[in-house]
Design brief:
The structure is a single chain. The protein is an alpha/beta fold and about 200 residues long. It has helices spanning about 10-20, 50-60, 60-70, 80-85, 190-200, and strands at about 1-5, 25-30, 40-45, 75-80, 85-90, 95, 100-105, 120-125, 130, 145-150, 150-155, 160-165, 170-175, 180. The strands form 3 sheets. Strands 2-1-3-4-14-13-12-9 form an 8-stranded mixed beta sheet. A 4-stranded mixed beta sheet has the order 6-5-7-11.
Amino acid sequence: MIGIVDYNMGNLASVKNAFKLLGEEAVVESDPGGFGRYEKLILPGVGAFGDAMEHLKERSMDEALREYAKSGRYMLGICLGMQLLFESSQEFGTHSGLGLVKGDVRAFDTSRFEHSLKVPHMGWNRMFTKEHPLFNNLDSSHYLYFVHSFHAVCSDENDIVGYTEYGYRFTSAVAHDNVLGIQPHPEKSHKNGLQILRNFINL
């Protein structure tokens, strides 16, 4: 059974429905004391990093997520949820994250953009992936749906398992042991997104 962390900062219904399409039971969980009963956890997220961390801390979910990561069971951060896995973010000030992946979250450097590119990075784009079971059996295009203005910068390149080009190359998927994260929204990415979630189920 998969738990979807509810801290009032994510589109939980679409994530839950994606698992339903795959025939997998996923439960929206708002009690950090209940995290331990799930085989895997999803940390979704939409909005600002600082607000999200405050919501997690107010509910004592930050420590519960760190403890869950120590258990060795898989957890997957999606979009803002992936960014929260990092040590810090520069979004509207400096904010500490969960610290499960070394690195930080930064705004797109628009000085490196061609004039036609805009922030937020929104729409379909390709993810170039390293070999990892999370990406088994994707179609050759690897196109996924993105909506974000900030991106992760890993301290350890070994944690990077996917990257995307938007003005320049940025990290769009990470894997640090059992802690996984993807910047695009698999629940909005049709066939490839469902395949990523299916692969997560099968880890």
